[in-house]
Design a protein that fits this description.
Order of helices and strands: HHHHEEEHHHEHHHHH
Radius of gyration: 21 Å
Number of strands: 4
Oligomer: single chain
Structural class: mainly alpha
Shape: globular
Strand order of the largest sheet: 1-4
Length: 291
């Protein structure tokens, strides 16, 4: 098996943007994390699971407590991490991300994965699907809404599905707006639920950082003063605090934190393939294959 020094030299050669970056980082590595803005895929390969972890359930309480789950990829606080490698050896702060909005026009989805209900083709449209769902959620659903899958929330689900189909044109049976008989709609509703959790988490994070209504409204224009006040008041309720405690306890059961970004496995697989090829070309044993 290759030594640690060989692995670091190989990683620096193939995965840093420049020799200066590699030298400054002293043998560390930072792949490009900018490829986002799409629905997270699913995968069951051991090497993929070991590298990236899994997508969390996005449950409101656990998401609120720990920030788990798939996010919309547009956290206005820029708290999601940092990208790039500075010449001083420390990472440059990530710039605040632009607020995602529902795009104009209507894109046609020509192929859908029958197992996951996620768009596959065209790829340039499919890669933005996840963040568009997040933007649709914020446009249609109030920040203080709960339990989108509750029996008394059928009207909200109808609105979400209708907005989804006005944004995307699906072909054949996938054009149906039926909630349960079309896997596109049922899976989209699961993601809408997760995005609602992420929405609340991002607002909660801004408030925890000392931001007031003006800053929150600037990041999320659909949030009104009344919405903001109701959200803050709800945060002070004992029941809400109890859910946070429960969420933290549940999240601590996770084996590890995933680093997949908003695109999930689908977004990471091209990088992993490039990495695997580089190991082969360099004649170095791929450590991920041992996991």
């Amino acid at each position: 098996m290759a030594s640690q020094e060989q692995l670091e030299t190989h990683y620096n050669k193939y995965f840093f943007r420049s020799e200066e970056d590699a030298a400054a980082a002293g043998g560390g590595g930072d792949e490009d994390h900018e490829m986002e803005d799409a629905a997270g895929g699913s995968a069951d390969e051991p090497s993929a699971a070991a590298r990236g972890g899994g997508e969390t359930s996005g449950d409101e309480a656990s998401g609120a407590a720990g920030g788990g789950g798939e996010t919309s990829g547009d956290d206005p606080s820029g708290a999601a991490g940092s990208s790039g490698t500075g010449t001083s050896g420390s990472k440059r702060p990530r710039k605040a991300r632009r607020q995602n909005t529902v795009a104009t026009g209507r894109d046609t989805i020509t192929e859908v994965d029958a197992a996951s209900g996620l768009p596959v083709e065209p790829k340039d449209v499919a890669k933005g699907y996840g963040n568009q769902l997040a933007a649709i959620l914020r446009e249609v659903i109030n920040l203080n809404e709960t339990d989108l899958r509750g029996k008394n929330k059928a009207h909200l689900r109808v609105q979400l599905i209708a907005r989804l189909h006005s944004r995307y044109k699906f072909l054949g049976d996938y054009a149906s707006t039926h909630e349960t008989e079309n896997i596109v709609n049922s899976q989209a509703l699961l993601k809408f639920t997760k995005h609602l959790s992420s929405y609340k988490y991002m607002v909660r994070k801004l408030i925890a950082d000392g931001k007031g209504f003006e800053e929150v409204h600037s990041a999320f224009p659909h949030v009104t003063q009344a919405d903001f006040d109701a959200f803050v008041a709800n945060e002070e309720l004992q029941a809400t605090k109890n859910r946070k405690v429960w969420g933290k306890e549940i999240r601590e059961l996770n084996i590890g934190n995933h680093n997949l970004g908003s695109r999930g496995y689908e977004g990471k697989e091209p990088y992993w393939a490039k990495e695997d090829e580089a190991y082969i070309n360099a004649g170095i044993e791929n450590p991920w294959l041992k996991l």
